[in-house]
Specification:
There is one protein chain. 33% of the residues lie in helices and 25% in strands. The longest helix has 19 residues. It contains five helices and eight strands; from the N terminus they run E-E-E-E-E-H-H-H-E-E-E-H-H. The strands form two sheets. The protein has a five-stranded mixed barrel with strand order 1-2-3-5-4. A three-stranded antiparallel sheet has the order 7-6-8, covered by helices on one side. It is of the alpha+beta class and 239 residues long. A hairpin with a 3-residue loop joins strand 2 and strand 3.
């Protein structure tokens, strides 16, 4: 990458740097995750104003200089997603969504489908605080696993191919297992299995609902898959 780059971006994180600058973690559709510096952005008369806060959807021009960080030269706001900052639950859900994207997709490899998914998630949280629950958060993470190419197999036992009596989950094996192959797997109850299947096949706005017990099993399946196959530890959603 050299010269100037024009791109849409979601601001994942914004960190104070020096007396007036900010270091930005950005996610873009064609250039993956990027690091940038916004010089003088914290000054009262900065031309960037408050347009580089976390969760902003922006269109920007970045300049590649000699350092590792790109330099922000122009920013236009597409969406502020300001309403999600007004409630603790939506603010937390947005932060965890951005954190999951940052951890699973940490390079400049393009993932336009992940960018679109993150935009959809922030838009949902902006519009409807009820979407801030763990049901939606886990459905979002499951779709991230799909985009990362490490989604667990759910259609049949990953060991023997059996399609009935799927009672366990093995991250090492890569998905669900039947009762006969359940050694070294944890129990995955029917409700948890139904959630995994439905969440993969439904839009984020129609994420299935499930009991706290089932959601804990789902979160374990997602977390262990990410750790085993991508060496990534995701922040817990359930307390």
């Amino acid at each position: 990458m050299s010269g100037s780059l024009r791109t849409d971006a979601i601001v994942l994180r914004s960190l104070r740097y020096g007396e007036a600058d900010r270091i930005l973690h950005l996610f873009t559709p064609r250039h993956g995750r990027l690091g940038a510096i916004a010089k003088g952005v914290r000054r009262a008369r900065s031309r960037f104003g408050a347009r580089l806060e976390p969760f902003f959807h922006v269109r920007m021009i970045l300049h590649q200089g000699r350092g590792e960080l790109l330099t922000v030269t122009s920013v236009d706001t597409i969406a502020t997603n300001g309403a999600l900052r007004e409630r603790g639950e939506t603010l937390d859900a947005a932060a965890r969504a951005c954190d999951a994207v940052s951890r699973l997709f940490e390079t400049s490899e393009p993932h336009p489908e992940v960018f679109t998914l993150l935009v959809s998630e922030l838009t949902l949280l902006q519009a409807d605080a009820s979407q801030a629950g763990p049901d939606n958060g886990l459905a979002f993470r499951l779709k991230l696993l799909l985009a990362a190419g490490i989604v667990p197999q759910l259609s049949a036992c990953v060991v023997c191919g059996e399609t009935e009596d799927l009672r366990g989950f093995s991250s090492a094996a890569g998905g669900v297992v039947c009762a006969s192959c359940q050694t070294a797997a944890f129990v995955l109850e029917e409700e948890s299995y139904r959630f995994l299947v439905a969440a993969l096949g439904s839009p984020l706005a129609q994420a299935p609902r499930a009991s706290p017990r089932a959601l804990r099993q789902v979160e374990r399946a997602i977390a262990e898959t990410a750790e085993h196959h991508a060496n990534v530890r995701l922040r817990p959603l359930l307390r």
